[in-house]
Specification:
single chain; 423 residues; alpha/beta; four-stranded parallel sheet; 19 helices; 8 strands; 54% helix; globular; binds iron/sulfur cluster
């Protein structure tokens, strides 16, 4: 029997009327984009259920946990170390907004010339239409791009906000600085949760998050096969939900999915036609429910086989050393791992180009699409190097800029179709 979450949303002081408008569009989009796919892995039923009650099931769990004394931390970036929060019995939930629905509310307080991810994230809070943004006891921001930094100042007027100071370079002294920043963050989480961090608890949390990374990696490994056993859309959905879910359950479900994909590979099962062109997508993150580009590419008969982005390989590649002897050692090991993420907010950011070339090889990509969310200056600028270096390496690349609105879908389709034909 379907559970009615309206009372819960009311208690969260949500704008119920406007929330109904949001709830009316998502199921239609999900049916068209996801449920119409053929031959999906059976294990995807779990993700269908999660999306089917995305503002119900997980929010209700978070509220239950809060009643038992746990604190919920909302994060916006893959530099924030989940391990610290989990070790202190806190819960992490991703907060990045991926829907055009929230953009107009963000634009009430932000310049229009800001990326849709920032506008949607602020809009989701201010419009009171997302339970995750209502539930979080504290938001954790970071000094990555300018748009986020300034938006956090606005959010900080409405909700408790803690900002981590991310270095802008990757010299040895920057890694030491990031380790110090992680230790200060641990102090803050101790204060909010009322718990004391121990190396035993932190080692346990490191293992939990590594297990999750290993499980997601298994799903990605399966996508390297010439028979692709899962669509890019389904893999992207699994990634997006990983930001919200309980990390132990997430690992369990991803391992279950990987088991099925490995079985499919043994049996030569592919969800794409033979000879479908293999596409690697790189660039700005795709927060849920941003499925636009994957849907266009796969509707044109090509297969998205990998995402070099924060909702992709950057989330699970590189593990943290386990069984550290002291908190100091663990902070440094966390810093080393997180600083391996190659975001365009760093200068220089050559590691990202190396990653794209390596991943294109590993996933046997026929071509790369470098996607930029409109008004993201750092990724837009870095696109110059991405396209130049890939050309030099003999890898075909198409640079595109888009936002959450469907207005440019036809134009994108034409360009991507021509690109796929050329491969
Ligand atoms: S693109 Fe950069 S700022 Fe955005 S989530 Fe990734 S690391 Fe953080
Ligand atoms: S897409 Fe670019 S501008 Fe937008 S939040 Fe990420 S780094 Fe910042």
């Amino acid at each position: 029997m379907a559970v009615d979450y309206r009372q819960m949303w009311k208690e969260l002081d949500m704008d119920l009327e406007n929330h109904d408008n949001l709830c009316n569009v998502l199921p239609v989009a999900y049916t068209d984009i996801y449920l119409m796919q053929k031959n999906r892995p059976k294990a995807m039923e779990f993700w269908d259920t999660v999306v089917g009650a995305i503002h119900g099931i997980r929010p209700a769990e978070l509220i239950e946990a809060q009643k038992k004394g746990q604190k919920v931390f909302g994060t916006f970036c893959v530099y924030v170390p989940d391990e610290i929060i989990i070790a202190l019995n806190g819960i992490v939930t991703g907060l990045c907004g991926g829907s055009q629905f929230w953009v107009p509310d963000g634009e009430k307080v932000l310049p229009k010339s800001m990326c849709p991810l920032v506008k949607a994230s602020v809009g989701a809070r201010l419009s009171r239409t997302c339970p995750f943004f209502r539930i979080a006891d504290m938001y954790v921001g970071e000094t990555t791009c300018d748009g986020k930094k300034k938006a956090y100042e606005i959010l900080g007027k409405d909700v408790p906000m803690y900002i981590m100071d991310v270095p802008q370079m990757k010299r040895p002294e920057d890694i030491v600085k990031w380790a110090k920043e992680i230790s200060l963050f641990a102090n803050k989480v101790e204060e909010v949760t009322g718990n004391k961090l121990t190396i035993e608890k932190l080692n346990e949390a490191i293992k939990i998050v590594n297990d999750k990374r290993r499980a997601i990696k298994r799903v990605y490994e399966a996508r390297k096969n010439l028979d692709v056993p899962i669509s890019g859309k389904d893999a992207l959905l699994m990634m997006q939900i990983a930001f919200f879910d309980d990390p132990i359950r997430c690992a369990e479900m991803c391992n279950k999915l990987a088991d099925e994909l490995e079985e499919r590979i043994k049996n030569g099962v592919s969800v794409f036609e033979k000879g479908a062109k293999r596409i690697l997508i790189t660039g700005t993150p795709m927060a849920i429910p941003n499925w636009k580009l994957h849907h266009i590419v796969e509707s044109l008969g090509a297969a998205v086989v990998c995402e070099e982005m924060c909702t992709g390989t950057r989330y699970f590649e590189n593990e943290v050393k386990e069984n550290c002897a002291s908190l100091e050692e663990a902070y440094l090991e966390l810093a080393k791992r997180y600083m391996k993420n190659n975001c365009a907010c760093f200068t220089p950011n050559d590691g990202r180009i190396d990653d794209i070339k390596r991943l294109a090889r590993e996933y046997k990509a026929d071509g790369v699409i470098d996607v930029n969310l409109k008004f993201c200056t750092i990724y837009d600028t870095e696109g110059y190097f991405v396209e130049k270096e890939l050309k030099a390496a003999g890898i075909k690349c198409l640079g595109i800029e888009t936002d959450y609105d469907d207005g440019d879908s036809e134009q994108l389709k034409t360009r991507i179709e021509a690109f796929i034909e050329m491969l």
